[in-house]
Each structure stands twice: as C-alpha cells, then as structure tokens.
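It would be a great kindness if you could assist me with a short task in structural biology. A protein sequence and the structure tokens that stand for its backbone fold form the material at issue. I should value your view on which stretches of the chain appear to form regular backbone elements. The record follows directly beneath this note.
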Amino acid sequence: MGEQHIILYSSSECTRCKLVKQMLNHHNVKYEEVTDNKQLMIDMGFESVPVVEVDGKIIDEYGCILDWLRQNGWYSLWEDD
C-alpha cells in the first residue's frame, strides 16, 4: 500500500482544526493544508471545517475524522501511544 494523499481543509481560528493538525504533525503524517480559502471550501460544498480529503475521499464530520485518525494510529498526542 502506498502513501495516502491527504489534504486538510481548515481555518486558522478553528480549535478542532488545530487539534487534527497537531495529531498529524505529532505522528509525522505528510499532508497538504488548505487554510482560510473560504470560497474554495464553499464551492466544494463544505459547511464547516475541519475537512480531510484522503485519496479523493472526503471526511467532513469531526467524529469521522477522529475515527479515521484512530484507525491509522494517529489519534494520540502522547509519546507512549
């Protein structure tokens, strides 16, 4: 299995976005970030952020994003996890 292409759509003022970004960074996950591009996000049909796109698949509910992070072993910010 190859590396996933991940895009994080976020806002610089969004606490949930910051948490998702911290988890990805903590686990050295490579991703592209699109921040504060409201028109693009509206055009894509997003009603809120964060939104994660993985290999073209949109994950736009926060709970589902957390589940995706758990499934990949990226949910924790603790060194032992």
User: Anything to note?
Assistant: The first helix runs from residue 15 to 26.
